[in-house]
């Protein structure tokens, strides 16, 4: 079941992000290393209070999450008009559920819940081949490459299914 996150979910979400950051680091990627150097609980609590964070819950366990947020400093650095839009961040799925379409369900859910009057944006590491081909399946269109990251914006005319 996908639902809006509450403050009680913050620890579970932070744990999922940390586990993924550690796994990426062990694979030799520096993607998400900043999450290992900051107070993740504070980050997740800020996300929950400032935007819409959704979780995938199964048997009363939070096993995935996605955040739809207003622009932050990160977005202002990557986008010329960073004050515009809603930004998808911190999509994470438990290793136990990888390959079961949970990420797809989260993406489809957040796109249905987003304000369609504002652009929906996201980014990924420029050399992440999987994500660079994954996001367009949902109707995201490549916009630019900056500082080693590719930026994408949701095309409302495209389908919302992968």
From TrEMBL:
InterPro entries reported in the protein's UniProt record: Acyl_CoA_acyltransferase (IPR016181), GNAT_dom (IPR000182), MshD_Acetyltransferase (IPR050276)
CDD domains assigned to the protein according to its UniProt record, in alphabetical order: NAT_SF
PROSITE patterns (UniProt xref): GNAT
Top-rank taxon, per record: Bacteria
A Pfam family hit: Acetyltransf_1
Residue ranges constituting the N-acetyltransferase domain according to the UniProt record: 1-161
Coiled-coil boundaries: none
GO molecular function: acyltransferase activity, transferring groups other than amino-acyl groups
Record's protein name: N-acetyltransferase domain-containing protein
Species per Swiss-Prot/TrEMBL record: Exiguobacterium chiriqhucha RW-2
């Amino acid at each position: 079941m996908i639902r809006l996150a509450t403050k009680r979910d913050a620890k579970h979400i932070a744990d999922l992000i940390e586990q993924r950051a550690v796994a990426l680091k062990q694979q030799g990627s520096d993607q998400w290393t900043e999450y290992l150097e900051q107070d993740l609980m504070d980050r997740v609590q800020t996300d929950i209070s400032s935007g819409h964070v959704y979780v995938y819950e199964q048997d009363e366990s939070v096993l995935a999450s996605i955040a739809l947020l207003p622009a932050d400093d990160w977005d202002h650095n990557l986008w010329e008009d960073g004050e515009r839009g809603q930004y998808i961040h911190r999509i994470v799925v438990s290793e136990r559920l990888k390959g079961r379409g949970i990420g797809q369900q989260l993406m489809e859910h957040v796109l249905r819940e987003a304000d369609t009057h504002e652009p929906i944006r996201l980014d990924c590491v420029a050399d992440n081949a999987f994500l660079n081909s994954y996001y367009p399946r949902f109707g995201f269109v490549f916009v630019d490459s900056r500082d080693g990251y590719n930026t994408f914006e949701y095309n409302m005319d495209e389908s919302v299914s992968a």
